[in-house]
Amino acid sequence: MMRADGPILCFGELLLRLSPPGHGPLFRESRLDANFGGAEANVAVALARLGRSSGVISAVPDDVVGDAAIDALRRPGVDVSRIARSDGRLGLYYLAPGAGLRASAIVYDRQNSVFATRTATAYDWPALLAGAARLHLSGINPAIGSAMADICLAAMTAARAIGVPVSFDGNYRASMWAKWCADPAAILLPLVDRADLLFGNHRDIALLLRRPLDGSTPQGRREAALAAFDRFPNLRHIASMSREVRDAGCNVLRARIDTPTDIIETDAIEVSGIVDRIGTGDAFAAGVLAELGVGGTEGAAEKAARAAQTGLALAVLKHATPGDQSETTPRDLATFREGGFDVRR
Fold it and tell me: Which residues pair with 109 in a beta bridge?
């Protein structure tokens, strides 16, 4: 059964990220920097740094690489007790960071990882989810393959059966889906059916509904959200972050939360001098999850507005942090809200 004060459990694959120092191309230098990440793990870390109880459900190798991956989650306070260990390899990806008008590029090397090959019978979902406040996962998991898609469906079904709310981040990865599935919507539809919170924009909704949707105007974005609420009656919130890319070092961000009856949209923030864009969407998701799950006396619209602002703040601050994971604490968040951009002494 769900507990409001329980952990937000994030189900997904931990990955090792290898990237060149600075903003050069891959393998130009004689070394690569190593960081641990993964979309769901990034959300759990960001939540923990905010003081919100979080945990990860995953599987990593039973070796020193797996030890290091777990330590990267344990240090900020993530509950790692639901991470399984077995022989095999950790998935990884290579990042070539963008610079100027050269976009960043990612190459995945995650086939046959411990997580990807773990079978459905290895997951006792009622036991894993007992006492959780929420289950969070993303579209990266089902993109791994049909077996993982079935596991995601079983997880979400089990969560709903015991009253644990479910959030789903679209996180569409075209290169992963293209390897095995010509119709991702067929896999994603039953998953989103089981979510009460969707992280996604008009493009994600268009993919799900298999029809074009115009997100270039406020009216178009609202029509896309209403189409999603109509198709997925369990949805209560749709959270999204829009991004105008001026170049690799300067983006303009805005956050939005739609409900069946309300639209909450933040002012735009220009983010210049970007250090690392990877993980910013996960930071946004963590900020939204942290606020929507907090009790209080304010109404639903006020809580959604606070969630949008916090999600945007975490995303903006993550752009100044190297690696996949947010390091923003409540103190950092308060300073950002106060506009404290000068040196703190």
Answer: 92
User: What is the number of other CB atoms lying within 10 angstroms of the CB of residue 216?
Assistant: 8
User: Please, which residues have CB within 8 angstroms of residue 127's CB and are 6 or more apart in sequence?
Assistant: none
Coil, helix or strand at residue 155: helix
Q: What is the pLDDT of residues 26-76, one digit of tens each?
A: 888 889 999 999 999 999 999 999 999 999 999 999 999 999 999 999 999
**Max Cα distance, the chain (Å):** 56
The answer to whether the beta carbons of residues 60 and 90 sit under 8 Å apart is yes
Structure tokens at 134: 């929420």
CB atoms under 10 Å from CB of 88, counted, come to 19
Structural tokens at position 330: 């409540």
Q: Give the single-character DSSP code of 309.
A: H
Over residues 118-168, the pLDDT tens digits come to 999 999 999 999 999 999 999 999 999 999 999 999 999 999 999 999 999
**Residue 83 backbone dihedrals phi, psi, to 5 degrees:** -95, 120
Percent of the chain with pLDDT over 70: 96
CB–CB of 204/138 below 8 Å?
A: no
Residue 207 has pLDDT above 70, yes or no: yes
Residue 26: other Cβ atoms inside 10 A: 15
Instruction: Supply 29's token pair.
Output: 């230098």
Edge-first strand order for the sheet with 105-109 is: 33-37, 15-19, 91-96, 105-109
Could you tell me which residue, 277 or 30, shows the higher pLDDT?
Answer: 277
E strand or H helix at 305? helix 300-318
Its pTM stands at 0.95
**CB burial string 225-251: b at 16+ within 10 A, e below:** bebbbeebeebbbbbbbbeeeeebbeb
List, in order of start, the domains of the chain with CATH numbers. 8-335 (3.40.1190.20)
Query: Region 2-28: what's the mean pLDDT?
Result: 90
The SS3 assignment for 84 reads: strand
Interhelix angle 300-318/280-292, rounded to 10 degrees, is 150
Which residues, in sequence order, are CB contacts of 6 under 8 Å at separation 6+?
53, 131, 132, 133
